[in-house]
Prior knowledge:
single chain, mainly alpha, about 65% helix, flat
Amino acid sequence: MSDDGLPEAAWAYLRALDAELSDVPSGTAEEIVADVRAHIADALDSGRSADEVLAGLGAAPDVARQAREELGLPDQDRPERVGRTLSLVASAVGVLIAVCVSFLLPSTVPVEPIQADAGEQGVLGRLGPGIALLTLLPALVAAAPLVAPARVRAGSRLAGAIALTMFACAAGETGLYYFPLALVAWAAALVPWAVRRGAGGRWWHVLAGGIVAMPGVLVAVASAGGSVGVGWVGAALWIAGPVAAGALCAYGFRAGYAVTALAGALVMILAMAERGFLFAAFWLFGGLYLALGAAGYAAARPADGDPATAWAADGDPTSPPVDGDPAGAPGAPARPRPEPATEADPEAVAPAG
């Protein structure tokens, strides 16, 4: 039986296996899934039913675990690792925001001024360290999933994201500062769920790249129309920078997401240090960049020589072959098998029952 004639149950199994191998370098994961796919096709050709073949292979997590053991890779629950990474990022963002609010944000609480310029003091200067420590509560909410029991960890991330969003919406001017934290908290709640189900892929990279590149495109259009004047430094910073980072994200390069996250954090810090008329726009824009970059970097698969294949790009082994493509290499020539896997027989990776 040819690979493109596999039943839907077999394709669902292969997608689940690919998702379980998401933390394995992409080229190695493609080889493992291709071997299992060929094994299923051969077994079906021998007259066995799809249910018998899949039952003989065992659950996708077990096959992935065995493959990791043979390759000498650690057995990791990648969705949980993604969630843990994003929860750490959310906690760091919460601490950064708390520091900004405590030291830099002029307090809007009506208290008797001690000095003539008391209205320009931060929360710490006007209300003391005890009240200022309350600004760390959102960071603690974001960090709670890190210490929560495994069975309630996903629920605690979702509850934390909802609570932080409600706080950001209800706390007036102070709440505006916590919107970036709410965005990262939602990433920590939703991205692990998407990774576990194998969602995303090329469309995610293209969408993320478009969002990242959009500011550069808008500035370029405005500059071409004469409504905005930018010099060479401005063109490199506001046009070439976002467009280059967006292109890297669109092609699945983890470096593109890392640059995006760092750029978002830098924009937030500069917006806080130089508060102006467009402070809110730059603050929220930086928060969006930070959340998007952190989510993409945490979810992207480690590259194996070619970062462009970081997260099931053209060479996705779970996609049915298109006309004219070899069954084992959809969309691109197959890579040589890495050395640890050269001696592995398909039945050793996925033993038949």
